[in-house]
Amino acid sequence: MIKQALESAKGRCGEDSFFHKIFFTLMVVGLNNEKIREQVGDVLEKENKALSDNLTRVWSGSPINGVSLDTWGVLFNAIIDGLALQALMIKDFPVETVYEGIEKLFTTLSNVTIQEGDK
User: Fold this and answer.
1) Where would you tag: which of 4, 7, 78, 112 has the fewest CB atoms within 10 A of its CB?
2) pTM recorded for the entire structure
3) What distance in Å separates the CA atoms of residue 55 and residue 118, rounded to the nearest whole number?
4) How do residues 11-53 score in pLDDT, each as one tens digit?
């Protein structure tokens, strides 16, 4: 499930990403338009919730005490959006390499969660 989610995000990550061009344009417009700001905020909240809900299916609990699964959802969403921004702005951004790193990060965190559950 996580590998599929990362593949999907990676597929939208590039200098020609239509989705992220629109998304970031709406974010900028939303800074000065309350209605658009609220709508973009709603999208972000739904993405955060979907990520934290998916994490509850993979992790029995947070791999780091004091960091909730809701917070992990926000963090992963910010990472994905931040990478999309960099891919839009940096010519030859190493999307494959970076997403391989994210997958390793997630796998490591998952292994910590499993080990904690075994104790």
Assistant:
1) 4
2) 0.85
3) 18
4) 788 777 888 899 999 999 999 999 999 999 999 999 999 999 9
